[in-house]
Please model this.
Amino acid sequence: MNKEAILAKHRKQKNYFPPVKFFAYSKSLIVSLFCLLIFSNAAFAQRNARVADALFKQGQTFFAKDDAQSLEQALAKFDEVRQIRVDLRDRAGEALALVFLGRTYAKLNNAEGTVNNYLAAMQIFQQLRDKTGEAAVLNNLAGFLRNNGEYADAIKYYQLAIPLLRQLGSKTDVAKALNGIGQTYLATGNFQNAVQNLEESLEIWNTIIKGDDDKIRAIYNLGIAYYRLGNKAETVKYANQALSFARQRNNPALEVEVLENLAQIYDETGDTKTAVDYRKKALETYQRAGRGRVSDYSFDTVVNNLGDLYYRMGELATAEKLLTQHIRSGATGKTHPAQSYIFGTLGEIYTPTGELEK
Model:
């Protein structure tokens, strides 16, 4: 029986469906279902991405409030974002969430959380070949470690960050990183390396029209480095520059710090009159600045140092008056640690006068 005869026979049978047409119908249905599945998955992913975006904004709001409770809430939001980005296989989004987890843990001074999240973010940025993200994480991690006294590790990460930042061509970020590593060398007593990096940082800042507080910090740190090297002329030059910039930018906290540093320089070189003048100016700056703009610790330190200076100059009555005027009622060593210095200096004043009860 030939092909045509076979087909004719099947056409006479009940419930006959042409095989070619049936196959076409089945294929069309499968394609439609497959497209529907893809569309559903895409819609689901878009919806989750929008949820992650909303959670991230909430986390940033909590992060900006900067109190302990808000920072804990920020952690929860950023971790939710991280998990959603993992589920979506959004590696860049996951890395960004990890960066903000690291930054939040840093504000809470949680070293383990900070380091672990920064390193996890850095690994993803490296896999994505995102040098901008990698450099930013390295710089942030180095700064955190420096602030927590982990100087060797801080220097290691700065040394990895700085070449990347140079490649990316961001002058501001390079200047900040050089200042950071210079400050780290300063803390370790490596003053020559401190000067080298801080001078390069300042050279870059001088090519940037609009500087910021980091430029002032670089100038100030450079003055300290020269001070540690015994170079008074360079110390005074850079300290006065930092003082001028701090006043221009209305930064009273740094102004007080620089004034106290200048006072210390003149005090140690025997120019007590100039040292007294600088410390008086520091107290005036604190009082003029308003509550909260300069730390109580900085103020109490200046008060104590000025009182001690009067004591060493033999002006016991002036020293006693200054120090007793600035004893904080109800202060403890925990709430106002520098108050203990004031009491210690008062004890030295009363000892030679025979006022042993005091």
Remarks:
- The chain is about 80% helix and 0% strand.
- The radius of gyration is 33 Å.
- Confidence is low (pLDDT under 50) at residues 20-25.
